[in-house]
Design goal:
heterodimer; A: about 425 residues; 16-stranded antiparallel beta barrel; globular; B: about 400 residues; three-stranded antiparallel β-sheet
């Protein structure tokens, strides 16, 4: 459970949600002049703009724009011949609201319901002050810009039901913290350069003490205190530089690091300071000739795990994924003018424990490989039906024969 | 209608895609290729408890759940991956008892070294002057069958004074037992002591004794059965419930006996004969039978562990100067050989055999035998290469 019903009373959120998604009301507001702000597809947008670059509904006299998306799917998984059967999942429903408060000042928030109401969280709630295109202030609950997926994770943008393993099971997906920082962009010719730099609260000991029995950065998301207190008392620094050539693509280099453990309390020393450092490189491009879209990310993690602790928790991790999306056709189907059918494939790799055992120098396992062919159908750019098949090989820490899992996923995701 | 053709074509493609990919779903391994899984014939209630025990066996102990602060491993399955044997990654060091007079280092952290610690704590150090041994965990399959063998049968198998003159003098481990164990039906007592049969030295009476000790000494988890924390050496509130411990005990009791493979292979058949001819079977008794068990599928059954559950002197090479209970330092309980061929799949693809995992092949393990097994080792060395391979193939089929 991520956060802060206390900030927005649950009833208010639910009520707002109903207002936002009720078809009848939707048609009324359209009739009364509300317009849909389309996604900006101009080539000056960077991945860092994803949080604002979403379809919003706004009215001419309303200071607030709203939007959101829904993701749902069915899943059938078989591991080494044993299946848990067919399940249906309402993975997440997200609402976002933005407001222009005054000239140069705007606000945006993103509230997410995961697995029904099992997890309700504010993923993003920040005030932006635009001082200059290359110098903007942002403060509040911020998505740490590590890799690309963390800031650009909306379900309808992706051809796959599952999030990339490197982004969700190595790095924490939708990893946000309270903090402040700066960001900006500049253009010259076909080139766009952007940067972000934030100081936020950060990780805690959960990353090396959790039910996954491995160094697991997403476990820090369970720490509800991170929106009001830094576990270590030291800020987590996150910075990213992204460069885009409008004809080639975008590459981003991001770093996140700081002290993660509570090394002292009430003036008493509990442990030595222990660092976490994360480096990620993300890449996206479209091959003009074929229209093939490629997006990927690679991440490296170093964690200071006490040498006297169990090697079950690794001190080095790495992972990568790449998505290849090939539009097959784009044409009118039924009443959809630009319906698109895509073929796609994803390759996932994660090694949660890079290294060898102290006891006998044998390679440590704890790694995963997966390949996911996919078919997606987009009646509009804002909605996607997708069918994925995922075949996964996962080895335990001892490098015993890999558990093989085949998973069928069929679902949809749509902005509303 | 023309606009809809692509939609129908796409749907057709999806159907073909589904059927094509369904063929690639991973198949279940053959039952005889797995060490884990329940004994056949459990009732639905028993299968439910087996499942609970399985989940508890895999439970990861975190600091919040009571791990440590000093420990060896943080879950049962760290040491028994896939319910198989352990690896050097999770070796146990036990120390402080060189003779049958009891452990002289209990006040210095004995009998087991907790060589890991949660952040902010220092792990235990081996006290100066303490004799010690290193152990890898045994497989945990088929333990309910071993538990249900009657004391009388073990006494019947024993020959402590080598009365038959075959050089083999196996004896039961008569030992003190904790108050919390429930005596098995028709258990036999001698001078207030009972036959203990679990553990490398056969020092634990039953699976409750073994499991409670493992929670406490391996993971630093206290229970009503073993309430003293290894770090503070003080009694603490239980960190695992009685029910959970009992579920794990039930799980261990009802894990199936390993199923032998390739029994029609001529080499395996020849290897079986050689196994008896060179007297391996004198200690690695192929067949035992259970007495009464409240778990019906375990009751009055013949089974094939290739162990007599007795203590044998294994010679100086395997004498590491440490013991438990009333076993001597060179004595080890005959380890069951069932499941031997599947060990590698739980040990990261390599064999780690004998009590400390020092043997990395079956042949190396044979050649490290001594003491009462000296003659069998000599007999093995005199076999032809073909016969050796047949014997090893037989052992790998178990």
């Amino acid at each position: 459970m991520k956060t802060f019903i206390s900030i927005f009373p649950k009833q208010l959120i639910l009520g707002f949600l109903l207002l936002a998604i009720t078809g009848e009301l939707h048609s009324q507001v359209i009739d009364s002049g509300i317009t849909r702000t389309p996604v900006d597809t101009s080539k000056s947008m960077l991945n860092m703009d994803a949080v604002y670059n979403r379809p919003f509904l706004s009215g001419a006299k309303m200071p607030v724009a709203v939007g959101g998306y829904l993701e749902a799917n069915s899943i059938h998984s078989t591991e080494d011949g044993v299946s848990e059967g067919l399940s249906f999942q309402a993975r997440r429903m997200t609402i976002f609201m933005s407001a222009s408060i005054a000239k140069r000042i705007k606000f945006l928030t993103e509230i997410e319901y995961e697995d029904g109401t099992k997890e309700i969280g504010i993923e993003f709630a920040a005030m932006d002050v635009a001082l200059h295109p290359v110098f903007n202030f942002r403060g509040g609950i911020i998505m740490n810009p590590i890799g690309a997926f963390n800031q650009n994770h909306d379900g309808p943008k992706w051809e796959f039901v599952e999030r990339p393993d490197v982004a969700a099971n190595l790095l924490p997906a939708t990893w946000s913290n309270a903090g402040f920082g700066l960001y900006g962009k500049t253009h010259k010719g076909d080139w766009v350069l952007g940067y972000e730099a934030y100081l936020t609260n950060g990780f805690n000991n959960n990353i090396i003490d959790n039910q996954e029995n491995k160094t697991f950065l997403p476990a820090a998301k369970e720490n509800e205190e991170r929106f009001e207190e830094s576990n270590s008392g030291k800020p987590l620094m996150t910075g990213k530089i992204a460069i885009k050539n409008r004809n080639i693509g975008e590459i981003g280099f991001s770093y996140m690091g700081g002290i993660y453990n509570k090394f002292e309390e009430d003036g008493l020393v509990l442990d030595q300071k222990r660092r976490i450092d994360v480096l990620a490189i993300d890449l996206s491009t479209t091959i003009k000739k074929t229209g093939t879209y490629l997006v990927g990310e690679v991440a490296f993690i170093w964690v200071d795990v006490p040498s006297t602790y169990t090697q079950q928790y690794g001190n080095k991790q790495r992972g990568a994924y790449i998505d290849i999306v090939q539009p097959v056709f784009k044409r009118k189907i039924l009443d959809w003018e630009n319906a698109t059918l895509n073929l796609a494939a994803r390759f996932d790799y994660v090694d949660w424990n890079v290294g060898t055992f102290n006891e006998n120098n044998a390679d440590i396992g704890d790694e995963l490989w997966a390949i996911s062919p996919a078919i997606s159908f987009r009646p509009t750019s804002q909605s996607v039906f997708r069918m994925n098949y995922r075949y996964q090989w996962q080895k335990d820490i001892l490098n015993n024969p890999a558990a093989k899992t085949a998973t069928w996923l069929f679902g949809f995701s749509t902005y509303f | 209608m023309k606009n809809e053709y692509p939609l129908f074509s796409g749907a057709l493609f999806l159907i073909v895609f589904v059927f094509a990919c369904q063929q690639t779903a991973p198949l279940a391994p053959e039952e005889n290729e797995l060490l884990d899984g329940p004994t056949e014939g459990l009732s639905t209630e028993q299968q439910g408890q087996f499942l609970k025990g399985d989940q508890a066996f895999a439970e990861v102990f975190t600091i919040e759940k009571g791990l440590g602060p000093i420990f060896v491993a943080n879950q049962c399955s760290s040491c028994h991956a896939g319910d198989g044997k352990g690896t050097p990654f999770v070796k146990f060091t036990r120390f402080g008892q060189p003779d049958t007079l009891g452990n002289q280092f209990l006040n210095l952290g004995g009998p087991q070294l907790q060589h890991k610690a949660i952040p902010g704590y220092q792990p235990e150090q081996l006290p100066a002057g303490a004799t010690f041994t290193e152990l890898v965990a045994p497989a945990v399959t088929g333990l309910g069958f071993l538990d249900a063998v009657s004391d009388a049968d073990l006494i019947e198998l024993s020959d402590p004074d080598d009365a038959n003159g075959d050089g083999i003098s196996g004896r039961p481990h008569w030992n003190n037992i904790p108050d919390y164990v429930t005596l098995r039906p028709n258990t036999i007592s001698k001078n207030g002591m009972y036959i203990t049969r679990f553990g490398k030295k056969g020092g634990a009476y039953d699976l409750l004794h073994q499991t409670s000790g493992a929670y406490n000494q391996d993971m630093g988890i206290t229970s009503d059965f073993e309430p003293v924390d290894p770090y503070s050496r003080l009694e603490t509130d239980p960190e695992v419930s009685i029910q959970t411990v009992q579920d794990v005990v039930f799980y261990l009791k009802t894990l199936k006996a390993p199923i032998p493979r390739n029994q029609d292979d001529p080499d395996v058949i020849s290897g079986d004969l050689i196994f008896s001819q060179i007297k391996c079977a004198s200690c690695h008794t192929p067949t035992l039978k259970t007495g009464f068990s409240p778990i019906d599928p375990l009751s009055n059954k013949e089974f094939h562990p290739f162990s007599d559950l007795l203590l044998h002197d294994m010679g100086t090479d395997l004498d590491d100067g440490y013991t438990e209970g009333f076993a001597l330092t060179a004595e080890w309980k005959t380890p069951p050989l069932w499941g031997l061929g599947l060990s590698k799949d739980a040990q990261g693809g390599s064999y780690f055999l004998l009590h400390d995992g020092r043997a990395t092949s079956i042949e190396e393990a044979i050649l490290l035998h001594g003491g009462e097994a000296e003659q069998s080792k000599t007999n093995y060395a005199e076999l032809s290469e073909t016969e050796k391979q047949q014997l090893i193939k037989f052992l790998g089929s178990l």
